[in-house]
């Protein structure tokens, strides 16, 4: 890292908060009713980000791979919880499949992207591994939450079609496939959109951060592309793995359609 | 002299329990039924008596039903659910036609693996299928070309149905006949027709009944749920009411080769 790095002091944070407070005040005057939520969310985000900053600082300084693993494990469990609370109308008992597929894609990410492409020293370099994990999880969590909600909603809508397919001799997989395809597509739409708009409409967060921190913009672009591409691929993979494990919830062991209570 | 009847399909001890708030409601219990080749049996009874539940149970589509069933003397658990449903075909009341044309809707069963591999659920064939260059739609087209669909539709009096039309544009009667033709083309041994003629006018209902009678004449066993007055095509009428089955033989009309049968308990 070279160049200048501009630090923000406590007044900077207060200015940001004040901006949110002004926006909340305007919304209050116009009776839009979102001012309180906005202010509350902003305070929450400040606390969560500061906490993450302190924890990251601690983990980086400690140089202990176990702390890195512990932090990642915590992030994974939080990701499962957030996925399931965001997904609406899904059956119980999906925590296992969601955790399994997140862990699986995490491992692929770690081994391919981190250890094969970037090859940091030490191998667990927290300043690399933790943010990458965060970006991957952030993307897969929203994609799988949307995908799972859509899948079970679609299976409810397609009830008659599923029954007709089964009556004609379809397997559970064949009867569920149209719902799986449409829900994976829907879940992946923001990801493909972000790939398409990157560099034209948006300067993605990671690249922006690297440039602000004084990094080489070309380097930042390379990093950003690798992260976007691998996240897109791994999000598709996670979504597919979860669907392949979850579709059976709609069927009995005799391949009979089993409606899922909302 | 009555010789022992060879039944193509037998069911015994059929029961159905639907879960309610915190208990189970028994729809029927301990029902037995059998049907021979080429026989048409009508299933009647008040609505809510469980006629559809019984037919879906026969096709192993009903998650709330239990019982033991045999097809050609082989127990149901010797079949995979897909193999069973290929022979014991449930035809739902609502004609559900997918795809953009009638031809595509009729080919749907041939896009399924059960009709594309001999072994059925063989793992290596599943892999091979995954990587085979031919799509299921293309395979279905080779197995069931347009000409054969056309000929079949014509032979059962559906000259009025254009294969290139969107299923959405069909009239109720046409959709019901296309749905029936699709299942008949799969050539099951037992057809379970769930009120296929409901909502049709008398002319279309008669067309549907004629098509089924032709298949029965070629050996298909057919169970029909009906709400219309008897049309003389069934050899037996069975009433499901209060969880029990009552049989009535149609002597003097219909297929008189079944008249000599003894009533089964």
Automatic annotation (TrEMBL), chain A:
The chain crosses the membrane at residues 6-26, 38-60, 66-84, 96-118, 124-149, 186-213, 225-247. The keyword Cell membrane does not apply. It is a multi-pass membrane protein. The keyword Transmembrane helix applies. Coiled coil: none annotated. GO terms for molecular function: ATP binding. It is found in: Membrane. It holds the Pfam family UPF0014. GO terms for cellular component: plasma membrane. Keywords: ATP-binding, Membrane, Nucleotide-binding, Transmembrane, Transmembrane helix. It comes from the Bacteria. Belongs to the UPF0014 family. This is ABC transporter ATP-binding protein. It comes from Bifidobacterium erythrocebi.
Automatic annotation (TrEMBL), chain B:
Pfam families: ABC_tran. GO terms for molecular function: ATP binding; ATP hydrolysis activity; transmembrane transporter activity. It comes from the Bacteria. Keywords: ATP-binding, Nucleotide-binding. Coiled coil: none annotated. GO terms for cellular component: plasma membrane. InterPro entries: AAA+_ATPase, ABC_transporter-like_ATP-bd, ABC_transporter-like_CS, ABC_transpr_LolD-like, P-loop_NTPase. PROSITE patterns: ABC_TRANSPORTER_1, ABC_TRANSPORTER_2. Residues 9-262 form the ABC transporter domain. This is ABC transporter ATP-binding protein. The lineage of its organism: Bacteria, Bacillati, Actinomycetota, Actinomycetes, Bifidobacteriales.
